[in-house]
Design a protein that fits this description.
Blueprint (H helix, E strand, L loop, with lengths): L9 H15 L5 E3 L2 H6 L13 E4 L3 H11 L9 E4 L14 E4 L7 E5 L4 E5 L4 H8 L4 E2 L12 H7 L6 H4 L6 E7 L5 E5 L3 H8 L4 H15 L1 H7 L25 H4 L8 E8 L1 E2 L3 E9 L2 H6 L1 H5 L5 E6 H8 L21 E9 L2 H17 L7 E6 L1 H12 L1 H5 L7 E2 L6 E2 L5 H14 L4 E6 L4 E8 L4 H4 L2 H14 L15 H7 L3 H11 L30 H5 L4 H6 L1 H4 L18 H6 L6 H17 L13 H16 L5 H10 L6 H5 L6 H12 L7 H7 L1 H8 L3 H9 L1 H11 L12 H7 L3 E2 L2 H5 L3 H5 L1 E4 L3 H6 L1 H13 L3 E4 L7 H5 L3 H19 L5 E2 L3 H8 L1 H5 L7 E2 L1 H8 L9 E6 L2 H6 L1 H13 L2 E5 L18 H10 L1 H8 L5 E3 L2 H11 L6 H10 L8
Parallel strand pairs: 2-4, 3-4, 20-22, 21-22, 21-23, 23-24, 25-26, 25-27
Antiparallel strand pairs: 1-2, 5-6, 6-10, 7-11, 8-9, 8-10, 12-14, 12-15, 13-14, 13-18, 16-19, 17-19, 18-19
């Protein structure tokens, strides 16, 4: 299992000297040269993989200036640097074999908001949605709309001059940049904004690098006007990367930001921006039009644009079919109804917005009438999404297009390398027809979505990049599409920047390319900033643009992984880098460990990247990761593990240790399994990794304590007072923390569960009893499946669940307690888990034969039956319902007055893996005459025993503070705050000293009041 780091060479030593000097000079941020950190940043959302020498995370502007100053010293002129933001680029823009300068971790402050003048000042690491969340109370927003808006940084948007939906109305990022602050090589700051002639002359007369930059760019603007006019296309998206056409604005002012926007970090480190912001339209309506063919959707552009909507988005059938299988579909299905006898193979989403609702509705009415009278294409029908929330839900589906395309079945997946072409909208249909013909002639399938109004359609050819024959198609397809875009008056790089496609700039710019080189030389004379992208300095002889097939492809490394291993670890290796897990929103469930640490290793993408590399290295060393990992001799195995563990303590270099640290920081909340569009399932491959890792290294004692909990607790619970006294004693707590690795262990409930059962006539479910029941008795019976946590640690909740069911008139049977096995699975005791699951499932399936519903209580424990059990038992798992799933079928179909409101914090596993179950809770509450408001919330930070583990306790506390703490502080006083996860309620009690009710307790309270009992 040992995975040595790459051997040192001259380049490695050179970079080590630079990093050592950087630390000596007082760099305050982090410097990471470990293999794991480098591997995570070796990929983005492109087809490429470049391993950097190191990653640095500047703490402040002074750190950035120090990096730029040091690298400009003659001895470090061969050191190259590349700035990085969200890392979601599709063309390898921020990939480098030098040093990555991550500006997102610390430089993410919103510095100033001027509501009256409608501008903001932010640091480059601020995420677009983060900014808009702060602006929303002021009625303002930052306009350029991206599908990656919940993780794209402002700095990344500026560096790629990003645009997306609504660009025909709102323009590109450049159109909203008022001023930039950029750290140049040498450490000098360049503060750029639109300048009049007098101030431009003043800047150009400076004797430093800033003066050189202004003199160079002004000379180009003054002497290359006609050439710029002839070469630059007349497109809404215009050109990304040294935009010479807008050096002079319409009013004559000179604006250096036109070349900085879209420069992809090749000119300097943009650390701060002043941006103009716009008023949020008060009303919006989305017209969703369905078509029998995708080409019909494209050809409809002219008719759709006639009444000048805000935007027109298009989606093809492949994306639509994938969306239907995704978590997002339950919120948008009503807007895309099935049409009898016809199949929808394309849709267009046409948005209208405005502040006057009556005027907006009239515009939409006129638009629909226009469509009725226009017969240029066949339309199957349309629906309306009215209001910002409805529009947001539909756009959430459209935004997931990139990720969804990565979830097609099979080894061939849609690949981004020619996917952001832009042509004049009137040429789009013919261009796409020829584009499709090009791919059809190569026998390739593809997925498409995009912005019809801007002439941009994202086309992703489906290729298996592990196959050298298919990977070799990257060059001919890229060449052909580059030529095709020029034929139709467009660009190969219409939206996502040039990156590793910069080689096509030579042919595209022709006589104007030396001007780009001159700009590069003025900013970066020795080609140290993101070299090989956009342009090379004029006087650096060996500098050249990197070609699309000169950088290693991810597929080249993937083909080193054994095919059986690849197939078996699909939930890890298919991560395509779209970065949905980097979601900034603390009130979104995915991914809590990333949000708390801001360390990309502790994200689904990071963990998937590490496991993918780990699998490759294991294969290279002949390790069988699919075999039986238990030792033939327990004694001999322990000796080997002890020896290896001692070697680890003395600094043994094994990449497996870095992977282990990443896995140990995972909460196993399974939000990634539900929310990741590619369905990267970290808890699944985490458990498998832990099993193999601990076949070589000793387990921490806490793993055995956690794994055995379900087996030991029935015996320990016979002496609850003694157990609680021991767990509360300071010496025991100290021993647990220091030697076991656990903190503040939960205490046993003192309630007598047997008395509760006797009070409500609860019986243990046995074949003898159930076989004697009549059909009517079975219809009015339920079997409760116990879990260790609510049964022994939170007995009052289990007791009130029993009371609620009894009051509803049902006979209650208890399935005999048997360990569920979830703690074993989470800790990687997979052999033991399979045995526990088989034993438990056998008993539950026997009870299930009598036709009486099996119902669980805790969502995390209950969902194990339909997820992990289904895998290890080949689909032969018992069917155990969540409480709300059973209640909604057991209660009458009758709604009552819903004036009393409860605020609900769902368990994150339930919210993300069974989203429809949250709606069922709403229906149940309605039938009790109550209203349920589901609060937007992230993870509570507990997730089973995670928050009780010494190594994770601080992170658990941080996760709680980000989302749950403010919600608990806001809603707890009302007495109407509820949560259905055991771990969630225990976390609130642990962190805030507050008791939060289970939804069933709220329902029981309603019954006890007598307000609903007589009506049900």
């Amino acid at each position: 299992m040992i995975a040595r780091l790459i051997p040192k060479n001259g380049q490695t030593d050179r970079y080590e000297r630079f990093l050592d000097q950087l630390a000596l000079e007082g760099f305050k941020g982090e410097i990471a040269s470990d293999y794991g950190s480098r591997m995570v940043l070796a990929t983005d959302n492109s087809i490429y993989q470049r391993l950097p020498q190191a990653v640095v995370f500047p703490k402040d502007y002074a750190d950035v200036e120090l990096v730029a100053k040091l690298v400009a010293h003659p001895e470090y002129r061969s050191v190259v640097l590349t700035p990085r933001g969200g890392g979601t680029g599709t063309n390898g823009q921020s990939l480098t074999d030098g040093i990555v300068v991550d500006l997102s971790k610390h430089l993410n402050g919103i510095l100033e908001i001027n509501v009256e003048e409608r501008w903001v000042r932010v640091q480059s690491g601020v995420v677009k949605d983060q900014l808009n969340a702060v602006l929303k109370p002021h009625g303002l927003f930052f306009a350029p709309e991206l599908s990656t808006s919940n993780r794209a940084t402002v700095g990344g948007m500026i560096n790629t001059d990003a645009s997306g939906q609504g660009s025909c109305t709102y323009g590109k990022t450049r159109d909203h940049v008022l001023a930039l602050s950029t750290v140049l090589l040498g450490g000098q700051r360049l503060n750029s904004l639109a300048l009049n002639a007098e101030h431009t002359e003043k800047e150009a007369s400076r004797p430093d690098v800033v003066g050189e930059v202004y003199r160079c760019t002004r000379n180009i603007a003054d002497h290359q006007q006609q050439l710029i006019k002839d070469i630059f296309p007349k497109l809404n998206r215009c050109l990304t990367g040294y935009d010479l056409a807008h050096l002079r604005e319409e009013d004559g002012r000179f604006n250096l930001n036109s070349v900085l926007c879209g420069s992809e970090g090749s000119l300097g480190f943009i650390v701060e921006a002043k941006l103009n912001v716009l008023p949020i339209p008060r009303h919006s309506i989305l017209v969703n039009v369905q078509y029998a063919g995708f080409m019909d959707a494209l050809r409809d552009a002219k008719a759709l644009m006639a009444l000048k909507p805000l935007s027109i988005e298009t989606v093809d059938s492949k994306v639509l079919m994938l969306a239907m299988k995704d978590i997002v579909w339950h919120g948008v299905a009503e807007y895309f109804p099935s049409i009898p006898g016809r199949q929808t193979l394309g849709i267009n989403l046409i948005e209208f917005s405005g502040d006057d609702l009556e005027d907006l509705e009239q515009r939409v009415h006129d638009f629909i009438e226009h469509l009725k009278n226009d017969k240029t294409v066949e339309r199957l029908g349309h629906t309306l999404a009215i209001g910002s929330e409805a529009v947001k839900r539909v756009y959430a589906m459209r935004k997931r297009s990139v990720g969804l395309l990565g979830n097609v079945q099979g080894e061939a997946r849609p690949q981004p390398f020619v996917e952001d072409t832009a042509v004049p909208p009137e040429n789009l249909a013919n261009f796409i027809a020829e584009f499709r013909s090009l791919l059809d002639n190569s026998n390739l399938e593809y997925g498409m979505f995009g912005h019809v109004d801007a002439g941009v359609v994202h086309v992703r050819p489906i290729l298996d990049m592990k196959d050298p024959v298919q990977a070799a198609l990257i060059r001919p397809i890229s060449d052909a599409v580059a030529a095709l875009t020029q034929k139709y008056g467009g660009l190969l790089w219409g939206e996502h920047g040039k990156g590793l496609r910069s080689e096509y700039a030579l042919n595209y710019f022709g006589a104007l390319y030396p001007s780009l080189q001159a700009i590069k030389a003025a900013f970066d004379p020795f080609n140290q900033l993101n070299p090989g992208k956009i342009a090379t300095p004029l006087d650096v002889i060996d500098a050249k643009l990197t070609k699309v097939d000169e950088v290693p492809l991810r597929g080249e490394f993937d083909r080193e992984i054994n095919e059986r291993v690849w197939q078996d670890y699909q939930t890890a290796v298919q991560c395509n880098g779209n970065g949905a897990c980097y979601n900034f929103d603390p009130d979104d469930a995915m991914c809590p460990s990333w949000k708390a640490t801001r360390n990309r290793i502790h994200s689904p993408k990071g963990r998937a990247s590490l496991v993918r590399e780990w699998l490759r290295l294991q294969g290279a060393q002949g390790v069988n990761v699919l075999g039986n990992h238990s030792s033939a001799s327990v004694f001999k195995g322990m000796i080997v593990k002890a020896r290896n563990t001692i070697a680890k303590q003395f600094g043994e270099k094994d990449f497996s240790h870095e992977v282990y640290d990443a896995m140990a920081g995972c909460l196993a909340c399974k939000s990634c399994a539900g929310q990741c569009p590619v369905k990267v399932n970290v808890p699944d491959f985490r458990a498998r990794f832990l099993e193999l890792y601990h076949s070589r290294y000793l387990r921490p004692l806490k793993d055995y304590v956690i794994g055995s909990l379900e087996f030991s607790i029935p015996y320990i619970a016979r002496f609850p007072k003694l157990y609680n006294a021991l767990m509360s004693a300071e010496p025991i707590k100290l021993i647990l923390e220091r030697f076991v690795g656990m903190v503040d262990s939960p205490l046993l409930s003192l309630m007598d569960f047997h008395q509760v059962g006797a009070k409500w006539n609860v019986e243990i479910a046995t074949a003898n009893k159930l076989s004697k029941l009549t059909d009517e008795q079975r219809h009015r019976s339920v079997i409760l499946v116990q879990d260790a946590f609510t049964r022994y640690f939170e007995t009052p909740v289990a007791a009130e669940w029993i009371e609620l069911i009894a009051r509803l008139g049902y006979k209650i049977y208890l399935a005999p307690f048997s360990p569920n096995g979830k703690p074993l699975q989470v800790q990687g005791f997979l052999g033991a888990f399979k045995k526990a699951a088989a034993h438990n499932a056998k008993g539950l399936r026997a009870l299930q034969e009598y036709g009486i519903p099996l119902v669980g209580l805790d969502p995390a424990m209950t969902l194990v039956y339909r997820q992990e059990y289904a895998k290890v038992l080949d689909g032969n798992a018992p069917q155990v319902a969540l409480p709300q799933e059973w209640l909604v079928s057991a209660l009458p179909m009758r709604q009552q007055d819903t004036s009393e409101i409860y605020h609900f914090l769902p368990h994150c596993t339930e919210r993300t893996n069974e989203p429809t179950s949250i709606e069922l809770w709403k229906k149940v509450f309605e039938r009790f005459g109550l209203k349920l408001q589901v609060l937007a919330s992230g993870c509570c930070g507990m997730s089973g025993t995670y928050g009780h583990e010494t190594r994770n306790a601080k992170t658990s506390e941080k996760i709680y503070s980000q989302s749950w703490q403010p919600l608990v502080e806001s809603f707890h006083a009302s007495g109407k705050l509820i949560a259905d996860g055991y771990s969630c309620r225990s976390q609130v009690k642990r962190q805030a000293g507050q008791v939060v009710l289970h939804p069933l307790q709220a329902l029981l309270g309603r019954l006890r009041e007598g307000e609903q009992l007589g009506k049900l």
